[in-house]
Amino acid sequence: MRIYILLLFSLFFFINCKTKAPEIGVISEKAMVVSARKEASKIGVAILQKGGNAFDAMVATELALAVAYPYAGNLGGGGFMVYRKKSGEIGALDYREKAPLASTHNMYLDSIGNVIEGKSILGAMAVGVPGTVAGVFEAHKKFGSLAIEDIIQPVIDLAKKGVIVTEKQEKRIKKHQPNFLKVNKNPILFDKAWKKGDTIKYNALAETLIKIQQNGHDEFYKGETAKKLVQFIQQNGGIITEEDLANYKAKWRTPITFKYDDLKIISMAPPSSGGICLAQIMKAIEPYEIDIYGHNSVKTIQTITEAERRAYADRSHFLGDPDFIKIPIKKLISEEYATERMSNFSFEIPTSSTAISHGTVNFSESTETTHYSIVDQFGNAVSVTTTLNAAYGSKLYASELGFFLNNEMDDFSSKPGVPNMFGLIGAEANKIEPEKRMLSSMTPTIVEKDNKLFMVVGTPGGSTIITSVLQTILNVHEYKMGMQEAVNQPRFHHQWLPDDIKMEPNGFSKGVRAKLKQIGYILDETNSTVIGKVDAILVLPNGKLEGGADHRGDDKAIGF
Ligand code: GLY
Fold it and tell me: What are the b/e assignments for 538-550, b being 16+ CB within 10 Å?
């Protein structure tokens, strides 16, 4: 009898282990890369093993994601990097796309001032001037240690060898094929009915990477690739010129930094809203004892929801490209402002979003964009979020060059009061102007504790990026979870408008949901199957690293 019970117990345990994501992530001694695909993490780690540093691995991982994860990894998009060197020096690199010189504030409106549906979303008119190649070359120029040719080589090899299609990728390609057909004049690589287990070879992309390897940054912005790219965009009705590409520069920014208890948070500055919004939310909840209220308890959800409501209400009113507008950063992330904003919060009744002034952000369901975290064997850390905006960007694929082009222009406000594809309603601060960078939610973040590196974290997910990064940090800091456990937890999201709490389905108990509803909150568990896809690294008390790779995707932590 005892043996049967034991067998039954083992079977139960086995089934549970098979269906549940592990609670402890990959542990490594010295270095780690966590990204959306194992092929990219592997290449990043191989560069570290060759003696390269986190910045060399950043170049390799970024380019490898363009091959292995064309859904969001890119040459035709842009991104942000936040870094912390072993010395404690911090900084941020902005390689966000820009509006073309020929762009105008009303370029997506018809003659009577209505938004032309889809014009900023699909096809060549949606494309912003890409920044990714400039970003990797700038990071390498300042901090790289290995020869760039050697860093690019394994990415070229991967493109030629090909990448195996996963089940999730098969579904994604299938889902977006109607738009590939709609946007592209000629058949593209992704029109085929790719199945799980097939290998896709990226020969055209390999050729482009070889040219970049041989001729450097200028190949993409002034060389043959630039000319071909401009010709292709213009043939498809776009307005990007050779001058736009030649003018593009990645920019070093001062990251947003702030304290939360004994943590120092280092996050992305404008043109991303990520750092400021994260700071506003964390400063607002800091006085509340959410550790005592409990993880994902009613009171904790209320406190975070009300802080999010207020921060998102400010977001698009105040934020945009800092080279074009003045942003009151100091005030927005101050303790006094947080206290003032939370002064009308009560546990008895939800604050109505209509009672909160400023801000115009609606929900984004996007799981596009991608994030990777790196810690090297020297103690340097980089946190990078990169994107084409939507899944496969504008869906316009330059077959000769082998990559998709972004639709980042949709992150501008096409018309104040009218939502973009993510439901974001535009404000003046984020209106389209030539050479301006569009507002982002990307939140690559690094956390210090006791002046030492503690965590590297980030995620895709549109406007849910900020709240997913927030909850991951809180899960570790307030609820003492490990990295993988923190990443696994169900997440919720509120962003002022619509006035509801998005919750991952099946992630919250019946009791918690019933109580929130009873207090007066509206819950949405239908629209939000995935909130974020966090890839993060935690420095454990013994100095080892724990990777948290999100089971919501094909993400993978690899270390040594
Ligand atoms: N395109 C998504 C973001 O930048 O937030």
Answer: bbeeeeebbbbbb
Q: What is the pLDDT of residues 401-423, one digit of tens each?
A: 999 999 999 999 887 666 555 55
Q: How far is CA 501 from the centre of its chain?
A: 21
Count the neighbouring beta carbons within 10 Å of the beta carbon of residue 235.
Answer: 10
Q: Are the C-beta atoms of residues 536 and 12 closer than 8 Å to each other?
A: no
Q: How far is the CA of 129 from the centre of ligand 1 (A)?
A: 15
Question: Checking phi first, is residue 30 left (phi over 0); if not, alpha (psi -120 to 50) or beta?
Answer: alpha
Distance in Å, CA 249 to ligand 1 centroid: 19
**Who's near 397: CB < 8 A, 6+ residues apart?**
180, 184, 188, 189, 190, 403, 404, 405
Tens digits of residue pLDDT in 463-475:
899 999 999 999 9
Residue 369 in contact with ligand 1 by CB distance below 6 A: yes
CA-wise closest residue to 131 among 196, 184, 66, 203 = 66
Look at residue 429 in the predicted model and tell me its pLDDT.
Answer: 87
| Residue nearest ligand 1's atom 1 by CA | 389
Continuous H helices in 248-353: 274-285, 290-293, 298-318, 329-332, 335-342
Per-residue pLDDT tens over the stretch 211-242:
999 999 999 999 999 999 999 999 999 999 99
